Known about the structure:
single chain; mainly alpha; two-stranded antiparallel sheet; 6 helices; about 55% helix; disordered N terminus
Amino acid sequence: xxxxxxxxxxxxxxxxxxxxxxxxxxxxxxxxxxxxxxxxxxxxxxxxxxxxxxxxxxxxxxxxxxxxxxxxxxxxxxxxxxxxxxxxxxxxxxxxxxxxxxxxxxxxxxxxxxxxxxxxxxxxxxxxxxxxxxx
Length: 135
């Protein structure tokens, strides 16, 4: 949400994730994850302390998807795994519900319904891009 504090001259250079409300922070981080700016998302997640832990659950699932399925650089997968490990203890009780209902952490929408994707480690590990960028 762009508001007065984000458009004042020079102010945007100094905004931190904590300057936004919980929902805005969530969508900023989700956008960073989705656009593969996982290194920036990691910094934002370190400052993200939501009251609603379901927001952390959604970020965890997004990171897990990158770690397991996305064709991306190994360094991004490594950061995604680190984020999953960081978030996991805070959402363990919620993850139990997801696993009992969906039987997987890999989910996608198919024909308007949320469906679980079967994890296949041998297929998932193939297709990584070479990491030619410095970490």
